[in-house]
């Protein structure tokens, strides 16, 4: 990256929570969240599909909102909460969304799956009982060339039911 005025130049200190853990490091001014996660932190779940925010393969959750990691700058993470697909699994097993994706065969090659999981996670966190249309809208930014979307929609519906039964709602 070349330094040009105006704007910050060189490494920028950031501190944020990543998958429940505090992270404090220096990031390059022009580094995307996606490249920070993959290259500096070794988290390979989020993928670079298009690099322009159209495919959703790089989706992560920042402060409860699904965002395209390829479009957000790493310096913007300062003071925020970040969840990646690696943070979904708990010590007791897979997250209900991950279980439902497997059970409903919503996975083919797997390239887009982490992004879809994170978009669905953000939806269910803010709306535990979404309608089919709300699920479609939440996943509209996630493209898949292998599966039909029907299995994915059924998986998100099943995960919502499973989460509701666990919480008693």
Could you outline the blueprint of secondary structure elements for this entry?
Elements: E1 12-18, E2 21-27, H1 33-40, E3 59-62, E4 65-68, E5 81-83, H2 96-103, H3 113-126, H4 132-138, H5 149-167
Parallel strand pairs: 1-5
Antiparallel strand pairs: 1-2, 3-4, 3-5
Can you walk me through this structure?
The longest helix has 19 residues, at 149-167. Helix 2 (96-103) packs across helix 5 (149-167). This protein has 2 domains: 12-87, Beta-grasp domain (Ubiquitin-like (UB roll)); 96-167, [2Fe-2S]-binding domain (DNA polymerase, domain 1), CATH 1.10.150.120. The model has no long low-confidence stretch (mean pLDDT 93). With 169 residues, it is an alpha+beta fold. The chain is globular and about 45 Å long. A 5-stranded mixed beta sheet has the order 2-1-5-3-4, with helices on one face. It has helices spanning 33-40, 96-103, 113-126, 132-138, 149-167, and strands at 12-18, 21-27, 59-62, 65-68, 81-83.
């Amino acid at each position: 990256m070349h330094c040009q005025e105006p704007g910050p130049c060189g490494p920028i200190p950031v501190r944020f929570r990543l998958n429940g853990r505090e992270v404090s490091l220096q990031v390059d001014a022009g580094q995307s969240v996606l490249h920070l996660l993959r290259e500096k932190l070794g988290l390979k779940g989020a993928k670079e599909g298009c690099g322009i925010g159209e495919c959703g393969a790089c989706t992560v959750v920042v402060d409860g909102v699904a965002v395209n990691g390829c479009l957000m700058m790493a310096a913007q993470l300062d003071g925020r909460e970040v969840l990646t697909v690696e943070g979904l699994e708990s010590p007791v097993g897979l997250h209900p969304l991950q279980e439902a994706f497997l059970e409903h065969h919503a996975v083919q090659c797997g390239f887009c799956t982490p992004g879809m999981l994170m978009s669905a996670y953000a939806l269910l966190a803010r709306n535990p009982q979404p309608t089919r249309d709300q699920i479609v809208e939440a996943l509209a930014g996630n493209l898949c060339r292998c599966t039909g979307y029907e299995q994915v929609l059924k998986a998100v519906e099943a995960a919502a039911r499973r989460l509701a039964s666990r919480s008693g709602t």
